[in-house]
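Q: I have two molecules that I believe assemble together. Could you output C-alpha cells for the complex as a whole instead of separate predictions?
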Amino acid sequence: MSTRGDKGIIRIIVVAVVLALLLAWAEGDLAFIGIGPWDAYFVRILNLAAINAVLALSLNLVNGFTGQFSLGHAGFMAVGAYTTSLLVMTPQMKKTVFFMEPMFEPLDRICIPFLPALLIGGAVSCVFGVLVGIPALRLKGDYLAIATLGFAEIIRLVLQNVRRLTNGALGLKGIPHVVNLWWTFGVGIAVFLFFRGFVRSSFGRALIAIRENETAAELMGIDIFRHKLLAFAISSFVTGVGGGLMASLLTTIDPVMFKLPTTFQILLTVVLGGMGSLSGSVIAAFIVTFMTEFLRVVEEPIHLGVWSIQGIPGLRMVIFSALLVIVVVFYPRGLLGNKELTWENLSSPVSRLFRRRVAS
Amino acid sequence: MLKRTFGFGIAVLLVLAMLSGCGQKEAKEIRIGVFEPMTGSSAAGGQMTWEGIQLANELYPEVLGKKVVLYLEDNKTDKNEAANAVTRLIEQKKVVAIIGSYGSGLSMAAGPIVMKNKIPTVGCSPTNPLVTVDNPYYFRVCFIDPFQGKVMAKYAYNDLNARTAVIIRDVQDPYAVGLAQYFKEAFIALTGKTDSILAELEYNTGDQDFTAQLNTAAGKKPDVIFAPGAYGDAAIMIRQARQMKINCPFLGGDTWEAPEFIQIGGEAVEGAALSTHYSAQAPGTEAAKTFVEAYRKKYNKEPNAFAALGFDAYCLILDAINRAGKAEPQAIRDAIAATKNFKGVTGTITLDENGDANKSAVILQVKDGKFVYLTTVEPD
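A: Yes, here they are, computed for all two components at once.
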C-alpha cells in the first residue's frame, strides 16, 4: 500500500513539473534560455480550451453527476463575466466606455486586482445559483431545463436594459488582459482536482445516487434538495469564474455573447466527453476547441497545381457536425461514458506493449 | 476494430490539420487579412462585405508591383472566433493589414489583438464609437453613430419641419441604442427645447407586437417617429402604426436598407426615410461609377452599402500602401492615419484623430416600392 502511495506522489510531482515546464515554455517564461514563447495563435486556443474545460466541468457536475438538466449556464457565465469585468476595469476606462450614460456612483471608482475580482464574480454567480436553485430545483427534468433557461434569458435581458450598470447592448471593452496559460490552466487544474475529490466524497456519491434513483437515494437518508442545491451552487460558482476568465481573455463582452448557443456549445462538450466523466469533459473541451480552429484549413482556397478550389465558408462546421455524428454513433455515451481516464487504463496499453504487468 | 480505425483516422486528421497550419513559405506578395461573419446570425452582412472586397481585389490586384492576396477567416458572428481569426491571420498568415468586421462587437474583440501586434485594421461597417477609441491601429471607412443620428435629426428638423419626435428603439441592438441617443441630442440642440423628444420607447429584437409602444406614441402626437433597429421589426412596426392611423413620417438608419424592408412593409413603408452610407443613384465620384458597373457585371445585382464599404476599405489600404511606399504594418498604419480626401465609392473620406471616417451620408426614401435617393448630407 505504501509503495503505491509513494509511486502516486512521485507521479504527481513528475506530471506537475513537466506541465509547469511546458506552460513556462509556451508563455515565453523560458525565453532567457532561448526557447519559447509558442505561436500566439496556438497559445490563444490553449487558453480558450482550458476555459471551456472549466465551463464543461461545472456543467457536468450538475448535468452529468447529479442528473439535473440545467440550461442556465450562459446566465451564470454572464454574471461572473460582468462582475469580474466591472471590478477590474480602471475608472478611466469605465468613463470612456460608459459614454452614453454614466455608471452608478460608487462602482465607477472601484478597481481591484484580478484574483479577488474573479472570486467575487464566482461568489455573485453562486448567490444567483442558490437563489435560482431554491425554487427551480424542486422541478424535475424538462421543467428544470425550462426554468434555468428562463433564468439565463432574464439575466441577458437585465444586462441589456440596466445601462448604467452594464452599458447595455453596447457592451464593455478595455477589460485588462490578465489571463495567460498560468491562469487558465491553474484554474482548470484546481477545478479538476477539487471536483475529483468532491465526486469521490460522500457528497459526490450522494449526488450520483440521486442521479441513479432519486427515491432510492431519499430512502437511504440523503437530503435530496440540499445536495442538489449544493451541486448547483458549486457549479454556478465555477461557471462564474470561467466567465470571468473568458472576459479577461477577450477583453470585451456584450450581452449577445451569453445567448442559448453558448450553453449548447458547453452542453455539447459535456455530452461528447461523457456525462459523468470529469476527464471526459476536459478532453472533449480540448477536442472541440482545437477542432473548430484547425478545421479552418478546409475553408481556405486549396491549390493543387493548376487546379484550385475556392474555400467555402461554413464547411468546417459541416465537417465538425459530421464528426460529432460519427462519435455519437460509435460512443453513444460520449467518449468516456461515465468512466475516468486513470493511470491504470492509460498505462495498460503501453505496458502491454512492453509485456510488463502494472503493479496494482 | 472499427473504433480503432476511426480513432486513428481522427488522429491523422488532427496532425494533418496542425501541419498544414505551419510552414508556409514567404512569397513576393502583399497579404491582407479579412475577418467577417460568413456564417452565423450576421452572415448576410459579412458576405455582402466580402463581395465588395473581392471585387476591389479583382479590379486592383497589385500595389507597388506586387500581387495583393486576400486571406479570409470566418468569425461565425462569435467574439471568441473573431479573436481567434484575427490571431490566426496575424500569426500564421503574416498579413500586413486587416479588413473587418461587420458587427461592432466582433471588431472590438479583435481590437486589442491588432493593437498588440501593431497591425493596421480597417473596419467596413462597425459603427459603435467604442471600436476605435483608445486604439491607434483601428480605423473605419463608415461614419459613426453620432453623425448618423445627427443627420436624421437635421433632416427631420429642416426638411420635414418637425418640432417634436418620439423615439422607439431596439434596446438589444447597440447600433439602435447609439443612434437613438445621438438623434435625441441633436434634435434637442436643433429645437432648443429639452421636451421636444416626447417619449423614448423600447422594444426587443424580434418583437411582433408594437401596439403598446405605438399607442403611447400616438397619444403624444409627434411630428416624426425615429425608430432605428432591424428592418424586419421596423417594417412590422410601421405596418401596425398605419393600421392604427398614425400617419406621421417614420425615420430610421442604414439597417433599413434591405429589400425585405419594402417586402414586409408594403404600402405602409411608403415615405419612410433612412440615412445610409451610399446610394447607386447619387451623383457620385468616378470610383462609384466604376464600382457600380463592375459589381453589376460580376454579381448580376444591385450593389448595397456594405459591399461598397468593403470595396472602400480595400482601396483605402491599397492607397495607404502606395503612399507609404512599402508594405510594412507600421508604415501602412501611419499612412492610413494620414488619409485625407480619399475618393471612395461611399464618399470622400478623411480620417479624424480617432481613426473614424469624416464623410457624407445619403438619405433615401421609399417611393413606389423602391429606395429613392433624396439628398446627400455633408459633415460639418
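A: One point stands out. The first strand of chain A starts at residue 172 and ends at 173.
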